[in-house]
Amino acid sequence: MSNEGLEEVVEKKEYLDKYGFYQDVSYDEFPKGISEKVVRLISKLKGEPEWMLERRLTAYKIFESKPVPQWGADLSGIKFDDFYYYMNPKSQKESDKWDNVPDDIKQTFDKLGVPEAERKFFAGAEAQFDSSVVYSHINEELEKLGVIFTDTDTAVKKYPELMKKYWGRIIPPTDNKFAALNTATWSGGSFIYVPKGVKVPMPLNAYFRINARNSGQFERTLIIADEGADVVYLEGCTAPVYASNSLHAAVVELVALKNAHIRYVTIQNWSKNVYNLVTQRAHAAEGARVEWIDANIGSRINMKYPSIFLQGEGSSGEVLSIALAGEGQVQDSGGKIYHLASNTTSKIISKSVSKGSGVTSFRGLLHVAKNAADVKSHVSCDALLLDENAKTNTYPYNQINRSDAMISHEAKVGKISDEEIFYLMSRGISEDDATAMIVLGFIEDLTKVLPLEYSLELKRLIKLDTSKGVG
Questions:
Q1: Is 253 within 8 Å of 171 (Cβ atoms)?
Q2: String of b and e for 59-96 (b: at least 16 CB within 10 Å)?
Q3: How far is 299 from 303, CA to CA, in rounded Å?
Q4: pTM higher than 0.90 for the full model?
Q5: Which residues make Cβ contacts (< 8 Å) with residue 403, sequence separation at least 6?
Q6: Cα–Cα dist 23/194, whole Å
Q7: Does 382 map to a domain?
Q8: What is the total count of domains within the chain?
Q9: Digitized pLDDT (tens) for each residue of the chain, 471 residues in all
Q10: What pLDDT score does 191 carry?
Q11: Distance of CA 367 to CAs 191, 250, 346, 376, 401, Å?
């Protein structure tokens, strides 16, 4: 074997060892497929109040009535009755102490570096394994200030008034088929409430892991930042490599009240047998600021368009999206911003990288309402093609109902030239490293705003994903 071939094998093994492994875990028995009986069983096993069961059942009827979206990526391969909608490890018992997490589950997160990262960088952390949150912890000082950080299942029982007020208000089950599916079958996810004026000094973190074959993960996250509050939330996602498909259909709702700030960061590294179909939306009140920072590296098909509704005067929003599509992957991503009040500002920046048969598509929607005066917005969409077969698409859509709105839009598509690669290789850099260096320079806007640990991990993932040995 040549040195180049040996390097490819080593890099692929490194990827599989780090993220694509499977943990041998015993699960409680649960029927496969989706039905009203399954929805009722999930609610019963969780011991939920009647009001949540009613919401689940209403959502299930909506899911049944809505068609699979025909636009965007091809979703005809999804067979809803092939998945398990609730996978609970027999050893599962949620804990606020890492040492109390069952060994078979703890080994997974230890290998991924989750507890180590929490000790170094985070004010609180949560770990979800398939359908169950197995660990949830928050800094004691923040708890004294009234900050709530727990799993959403617990929030239903401990904070019913907040849940009834905000849960499903921003993303109702009528929004789309997969939002309805999530509302009917959801398990886990994060619930965060930051009181008035409280600034969370370090990020809160959650890590989502799909381990079981043919399973679905449907976490539900709700973050409420009260007036003048400030919070950063980071999430990471991985799964083993299987021949069969898995489904991830999460819902994320953000509420930023007057002068609050929320930054939501995702590094999605699902394995390439996962359909990742996520609905994410935020409401920003007067003077509030919301940022989505969204990195999509994994998945077989990814469809995700974080959106922000700027409802209060002087509010602002930003969507920073990065997508890498390797062999056999479809990354359909972008962002949506709705200017519903005056003196609002926004920015959508999209960076995409395609190689082999990978396809990236940017979908951006910018809406300016008739009553929204003095709006300013900038949309930028840049694509990088790593070889001749790679493809990229751009679908911008602007609805501008004011003549005084200041809107700018730019889009660029480029390729890595042989001259760039040759120059770097002539300096003793391997072809894979040269490619990774160019890609990292291309997405610098994203990496420079991430916490150090996440920035380093993203760079490592990109190096693996752009190499010849992975994809």
A1: yes
A2: bbebbeebeeeeeebebeebeeebbbbbbbbebbebbe
A3: 10
A4: no
A5: none
A6: 35
A7: yes
A8: 1
A9: 444 343 334 434 454 455 444 455 566 778 899 999 999 999 999 999 999 999 999 999 999 999 999 988 899 999 999 998 988 766 555 555 556 655 655 555 555 555 454 444 444 566 666 666 666 666 778 888 999 999 899 999 999 999 999 999 999 999 999 999 999 999 988 999 999 999 998 888 887 777 667 778 899 999 999 999 999 998 876 655 555 678 999 999 999 999 999 999 988 878 788 899 999 999 999 999 999 999 888 889 999 999 999 999 999 999 999 888 988 899 999 999 999 999 999 999 998 888 888 999 999 999 999 999 999 999 999 898 888 888 999 999 999 999 999 999 888 888 776 777 776 777 777 777 777 777 777 777 777 776 655 666 666 666 666 654 333
A10: 94
A11: 29, 25, 11, 11, 8
Asked if 153 and 187 touch (Cβ cutoff 8 Å), the reply is: yes
> Are 371 and 403 within 8 A, CB to CB?
no
| φ, ψ at 186 (rounded to 5°) | -60, 150
- Is 85 among the domain residues? yes
Structural domain that includes position 285? 3-466
Structure tokens at 86: 């609730």
The DSSP secondary structure of 391-450, one letter per residue, reads: EEEEEEEEEE--TT-EEEEEEEEEE--HHHHHHHHTTT--HHHHHHHHHHHHTHHHHTTS
The set of residues, in sequence order, having a beta carbon less than 8 Å from that of 6 and lying 6+ positions away, is none
The alpha carbon of residue 102 and the mean position of all alpha carbons in its chain are separated, in whole angstroms, by 26
Which residues, in sequence order, are bridge partners of residue 392?
A: 360
What does the angle CA 91 – CA 241 – CA 114 come to, to the nearest 5 degrees?
55
Which whole-number Å values give the CA distances from 179 to 66, 134, 168, 248, 391, in the listed order? 11, 24, 10, 11, 29
The angle subtended at Cα 76 by Cα 334 and Cα 333, nearest 5°, is: 5
Q: Tell me, rounded to whole angstroms, the distance of Cα 195 from its chain centroid.
A: 25
Smallest CA-to-CA distance from 449 within 359, 306, 320 is with: 320
Strands ordered across the beta sheet of 345-354: 132-138, 124-129, 204-209, 230-238, 261-269, 289-296, 316-325, 345-354, 376-385, 406-415
Two tokens at 225? 């930042």
d(CA 38, CA 55): 14
Residue given tokens 């640990």 in the structure block? 453
Residue 332, both tokens: 């359909």
Residue 471 lies in a domain: no
- CA dist 208 and 63 (Å) reads 24
In-domain check, residue 424 = yes
